[in-house]
Amino acid sequence: MCGIVGYTGPQSAATPLIEGLRRLEYRGYDSAGIALGTSNKLFVEKRAGKLANLEGALSQVPEVHSGIGHTRWATHGGPTDRNAHPHLDNEGKLAVIHNGIIENYSELKAELQSAGHTFHSETDTETVAHLLSDLRKEHNGDLTIAMREAVKRLRGSFTLLAVHADRPELIVGVRRNSPLVVGLGNGENFMASDVAAFIEYTKRAVELGQDEVVTITPTAVSITDLAGKAISPREYQITWDAAAAQKGGFAHFMLKEIFEQPKAVADTLIGRFVNNQIAIDELKLSEAELKNLKKIVVIACGTAFHAGLVAKYAIEKWSKIPVEVELASEFRYRDPLVDSNTLVIAISQSGETMDTLMALRHAKEFGAKVLAVCNTNSSTIPRESDAVLYTHAGPEIAVASTKALLTQIVATYLIGLYLGQVRGVIKSADVSEIYNQMLELPAQLEQILETVEPLRELTRKFADKNTVLFLGRHVGFPIALEGALKLKELAYIHAEGFAGGELKHGPIALIEEGTPVIAIVPNTHEHGLDEKMLSNIQEVKARGAKVIAIATEGIEIPGATHIIRIPNSPQLLQPVLAAVPLQVFAYEMAVARGTDVDQPRNLAKSVTVE
Ligand code: F6R
User: Fold this and answer.
1) pTM for this prediction
2) Tens digit of pLDDT for each residue in 354-365?
3) What residue's CA is closest to ligand 1, atom 3?
4) What local confidence, expressed as pLDDT, does residue 177 receive?
5) d(Cα 260, Cα 241) in Å, to the nearest integer?
6) d(CA 293, CA 309)
7) Ligand 1 within 6 A of 349 CB?
8) Is 303 in the pocket of ligand 1 (CB under 6 A)?
9) Mutate to test the pocket of ligand 1, among 298, 303, 305, 355 (most ligand atoms within 8 A of CB)
10) Greatest CA separation for the chain
11) Confidence of residue 378 (pLDDT cuts 50, 70, 90)
């Protein structure tokens, strides 16, 4: 977490730095700061709180042409002015910003203190500023060599950028397990945690590998490994433009992203049915390998985990391969029973989530093949996977995930159909029918969004509630979990999702007069699922609950206080539709309660720490 940006070129550096930080604020917003490279000394300003606090303090910014900027999600040391980045050496000439955690900072700090360094913050980052300062002196003022040597002494995960007042036009960066991309401009260069930071200025980007050290000046970019060996940059074009990262007239990014879902789903599905077959050319496994698969394990966190839970129902049905879905943060600390006949699917919007990354590395150690389902081009998770299927949600800026979920569900469905087809366990007519039904989803999503106003109005009536429960069965169960997660993170309301069948095993004790219960009603009679949910509704109503049912047209729901109708589609596709009213409910609750919709407290978009 934390957003990092560096700039060197002809512009007044404060402008691209602040612009970049605004685009990266989704990564952390506890405090922000910049260091500008005036000759012989640095101009440094940093403030606790949101970027606006820093901007308010920047009335007199020197007109200089390079610098670094940081927006923080606190790990070591609270969110105070003192702990905000950049951190300086004792001469005030070298500044460092950091994303990640330096695990061995205490021992390094003790060593540096006994060598005479004075510390001013409680952060792990400040250690690097002092260490770099000493190493730079040892290496005749060469900041690049100093960075290489410093990194050899660091444990943990980090992206670091450093600038020194003696050569302010030169910025040095490095990454280990945290993101860093270089933007190649015309007579100017950038570094940032995410291309969003510099998309306004250039579409040419360079990805960095593990432990690669990069030095930029306005006209040059050089990359080396820790031994100093030159590495040729791997350049790529950024495919989305700056407008995609703006609110476009919506009150919040989250609302905009909810409304972008029809397009996101359509873009993810497009071109995936060729010559009467699902086409996933990216899946680089041979037909023999696919036929020999004994098990699929999905690893993910948060909303992406919920997408995995939904995927299990479809992949097992279509491919006849058993699917386990596990929180990445649990999987990585187990001795999992996976081997070369296991396909691990790592789902991640950002492609940088540390727990998912570590879980995929863990799976690879056991010989499993890893397929990433990811929304962020060239991020770490796809780079370290054997293959990647990109979702095409476009940039997701709001911290709460919406369009990523829907695209993750349809992408994993494509994988399920593909595996079923290769293994010959699903009829091609069925594949074609299901794909065509999926193609109807964007129009059905449009239909939900066109009629969303009454739901927004209804939601406001519940704004004073402190507990909301969500019930679902079958594929509706993960969606109930997702509805609860959205409400917790956005409106800070206690919310729980339950499988309908579990109600009587404990959760029903939570129901009291007026408790809102949102029930996702299955639109299938198979296994009596619809009737079972209708019974659950009666059970909670009898104990005083106010039930909001999410159901397709034509299903009678005695006992529901309110019914939100969604279009009819096959049961396995219902989660894509049913998720939307729950997103809108959480969004509207947050607005009504006055919380920060796009940047909820204590959270950050991309969780790059353990
Ligand atoms: C919730 C949310 C998080 C993410 C989770 C995984 O709204 O956004 O739960 O889903 O942190 O993030 P990615 O998908 O980037 O790995």
Assistant:
1) 0.82
2) 999 999 999 999
3) 302
4) 83
5) 15
6) 19
7) yes
8) yes
9) 303
10) 80
11) confident
